[in-house]
Specification:
Layout lengths: L4 E14 L4 E8 L10 E6 L2 E6 L9 E7 L5 H8 L6 E8 L11 E7 L4 H13 L5 E8 L8 H10 L3 E7 L7 E2 L2 H11 L6 E6 L1 H13 L7 E5 L2
Parallel strand pairs: 7-8, 7-11, 8-9, 9-10, 11-12
Antiparallel strand pairs: 1-2, 1-6, 2-5, 3-4, 3-6
The chain binds flavin-adenine dinucleotide (FAD).
Flavin-adenine dinucleotide binds next to strand 4, strand 5 and helix 1.
Length: 235
């Protein structure tokens, strides 16, 4: 069994699945169980290039983890992953790392705010909540993306709405009209904060700099500071 390690662990890419044209799911298989807390990330090294990725899964099968990775134009590692790598490729992993994890006391309102592959750590946390049956008081997942086709794990999320009590899933599209919410993530938490009676809310923000900087500012305008906000900045 692997617990936290500062050494590189040998693993391999077991499967690659296209979730959307630009975002693929990579299933990683370890030789032994890989122990982590949902919300954490790992460092992935492929063909000498290393980058950090949030773990996007949690299952009873502890020697498997899933990553969801978006292709970045001319990105060094993502070009290798999307162009050259196939299932069976030997890779190395370091970790788990980070404390973007659930608080001990979950008798409070939890907000997960993300765009794109920033959904990854929340998917892992939700998988674990569903599996354990230990439900926090209330969760609001606000997930921003462009079009319906970009709604990562849409079916899984709809299923969790039924299986996890008080789980509110709010997908928001910025470039397509549909039956759900449109615009940006910011309007959604602003509405909830203004209209709901919240209990000691804790805000998790995950993704790229622009969304995170805006959200921090808007939450500060609403009266929340770093003691109520946890960040995972992708770049
Ligand atoms: C803790 C942590 C967890 C992460 N988890 C994930 C994850 O789960 N999924 C995931 O897809 N990425 C994740 N990332 C980002 C990832 O580490 C890489 O930065 C990303 O895959 C690009 O690597 P690259 O080598 O292809 O591009 P590089 O050659 O390193 O860089 C390309 C340039 O594009 C910028 N850039 C990269 N991605 C974007 C983007 N989407 N939008 C705008 N600018 C961008 C970078 O800042 C850089 O300037 C995470 C980063 C951190 C720090």
């Amino acid at each position: 069994m692997y617990t936290k390690s500062n050494n590189w662990l040998n693993a391999k890419i077991k499967a690659i699945k296209k979730l959307t044209k630009q975002t693929w799911k990579f299933t990683i298989q370890f030789d032994e169980d890989f122990i982590f807390t949902p919300g954490q990330f790992i460092t992935l090294k492929v063909r000498g290039v290393q980058r950090n990725y949030s773990i996007a899964s949690f299952s009873k099968n502890r020697n498997l983890i899933e990553l969801i990775i978006v292709k970045v134009e001319n990105g060094k590692l993502t070009t290798i992953l999307f162009r050259d790598v196939e299932p069976g490729e030997n890779i190395e992993i370091k970790g788990p790392k980070g404390n973007f994890t659930m608080p001990e006391n979950t008798n409070r309102d939890i907000f997960f705010i993300c765009t794109g592959t920033g959904l990854a750590p929340f998917k892992s946390i939700l998988d674990e909540i569903e599996l354990s049956g230990k439900y926090p008081k209330r969760i609001f997942l606000i997930f921003g993306t462009r079009t319906k086709n970009d709604l990562l794990f849409y079916d899984e999320m709809k299923k969790m709405v039924k299986s996890i009590p008080n789980f509110n899933y709010i997908p928001v599209l910025s470039r397509e009209n549909w039956e759900g919410e449109t615009g940006y993530v910011h309007q959604q938490y602003n509405n909830i904060v203004k209209n709901e009676k919240l209990q000691n809310p804790l805000f998790y923000l995950c993704g790229w700099r622009n969304m995170i900087v805006d959200a921090k500012q808007q939450l500060s305008n609403l009266g929340y500071d770093s003691s109520n906000i946890k960040l995972e900045l992708y770049g």
